[in-house]
Design a protein that fits this description.
The protein has 431 residues and is α+β, with helices and mostly antiparallel strands. It folds into two domains: 198 residues, Metalloenzyme, LuxS/M16 peptidase-like (Cytochrome Bc1 Complex, Chain A, domain 1, 2-Layer Sandwich); 172 residues, Cytochrome Bc1 Complex, Chain A, domain 1 (2-Layer Sandwich). 42% of the residues lie in helices and 16% in strands. It is built from 15 helices and eleven strands. The protein has a six-stranded mixed β-sheet, sandwiched between helices. About 6% of the residues have low confidence.
């Protein structure tokens, strides 16, 4: 009888524990992140594999952990052009859509190049073979380079006529100068038109290598068969002779005087404020995402409301410290700050010196709770493969990725806000 009662207690305790675990997961918006099967080819290519028998597609992502930050000065747009050259025509995307029943996308950022592709389960081997051919032996010649260069120049011509884009680029340059994040990620019409296929070959040899990449594959497929195919198709992808470190001379202190730009296309003034922020690997980056949510609530209230349109706060974090950008549209140029939101008497001198910095001062428990809840909800929706890819790109411990936002405290947010508030603020107006 005693043994029976003991068994009942153990079972009951197990049920209670399971309920509490489920409740905690629901409360924090998190579900246990499945660990992938991890492999590494002899050439250094890292492979992460998740299997889902219920999926109707197979998705492959190949991320090369080097992006436009490595563009040589005067040759901005090199890495973007290299990414465009991997699949240089619409026929490639049509093949993935019509023949493989999936999709194809190539993306370049300051920090990485990434190919994202999908197919029907029965076409996974053909998809892998196609991707391997494109990325390990891309067609880089005069004709192809000229074609993708012309296409990129057409896009840049449109962007450079857009006052919003002009303002974004100007404030980044004002803040960083010739540091990578102060230079246009896609390049400019002036730099791209001078790029030749030899520039792409050099970038390919230095960065587009197997030991500088991570592949993820998820969906409905046979793991063993698919891994054998990966070894066969990607095994010939060359590794680098040597790694190129991400070491750059730190930017000088920026000029904080108002920078005006005149353009014929601006019906209203595009206003930008910016201050330096955090790297993705910074211990305060998770707190800075919560801070961003708070700033998005505060920023419209800081300005004289009816004169400001489309207020936006962006936290641009990269492999190296990025920046926070505050933008809005105005018919009146740079709008004075609302007097009701000036810094309180007990604010530090650096906050009183620049009233915009009142945004970072005196964060309340209510603001923190709301912002943290929003960020946890967004974090819970992040695709698992992207979390693992980001962990490799930004050298982040994957074990702490899912709990990073959950563990943020109001003290962490206040500390990150204090760090931000001590940085100089640059201002740009495009009108």
């Amino acid at each position: 009888m005693k043994n029976k009662n003991l068994l009942q207690k153990v079972v009951f305790a197990g049920i209670i524990f399971a309920i509490l675990l489920s409740a905690a997961a629901a409360l924090f918006g998190q579900t246990p992140m499945p660990s992938p099967r991890q492999e590494k080819l002899l050439n250094g290519l890292k492979v992460l594999m998740w299997n889902d028998a219920r999926a109707d597609k197979v998705t492959v992502k190949i991320r090369v952990h080097a992006g436009s930050a490595f563009d040589p000065q005067g040759k901005e747009g090199t890495m973007q052009l290299l990414a465009d050259d991997l699949f240089p025509n619409d026929a490639s995307r049509d093949f993935f859509k019509e023949d493989l029943g999936g999709s194809l996308e190539t993306v370049a950022t300051y920090d990485y190049l990434q190919i994202s592709a999908s197919s029907k389960p029965e076409s996974v081997l053909l998809m892998l073979e196609t991707l391997a051919t494109a990325i390990s032996t891309p067609t880089i010649d005069k004709e192809t380079t000229a074609k993708v260069r012309t296409a990129l120049l057409a896009k840049l011509k449109v962007l450079e006529a857009d006052p919003s884009y002009v303002a974004d680029q100007a404030v980044a340059k004002r803040l960083f100068g010739t540091f990578p994040y102060g230079r246009p990620q896609r390049g400019s019409t002036a730099t791209v038109q001078n790029l030749v296929f030899a520039d792409l070959i050099d970038a390919k040899q230095r960065f587009l290598t197997a030991d500088n990449a991570t592949m993820t594959i998820s969906g409905n497929y046979d793991r063993d068969l698919t891994y054998r195919a990966i070894r066969r198709y990607f095994g010939g992808w060359l590794k680098a002779d040597k790694k190129v470190p991400a070491t750059f001379r730190q930017p000088d202190d920026p000029d904080i005087t108002l920078f005006n730009i005149s353009t014929a296309n601006a019906a209203k003034s595009e206003i930008r404020f910016a201050t330096r922020g955090f790297a993705r690997s910074d211990k305060d980056y998770p707190a800075s995402t919560v801070l961003t949510s708070i700033l998005r609530e505060r920023f419209p209230k800081l300005m004289t409301g009816s004169l400001m349109e489309q207020p936006l706060v962006s936290n641009k974090a990269y492999a190296l410290p990025g920046y926070f950008s505050f933008s809005y549209l105005s018919k009146e140029g740079v709008i004075p700050l609302a007097q009701s939101h000036q810094a309180p008497p007990d604010a530090p001198n650096y906050v009183r010196y620049n009233p915009l910095l009142v945004l970072f001062w005196n964060i309340t428990d209510e603001e923190f709770s709301k912002a943290k809840s929003e960020m946890m909800d967004q974090s819970s929706k992040m695709p698992t493969d992207r979390l693992w890819l980001d962990a490799d790109t930004y050298r982040i411990d994957i074990a702490g990725v899912t709990s990073a936002i959950q563990n943020v405290t109001i003290a962490d947010v206040r500390r990150s806000a204090d760090r931000m508030a001590k940085n100089p603020v640059v201002t740009v107006a495009v009108k």
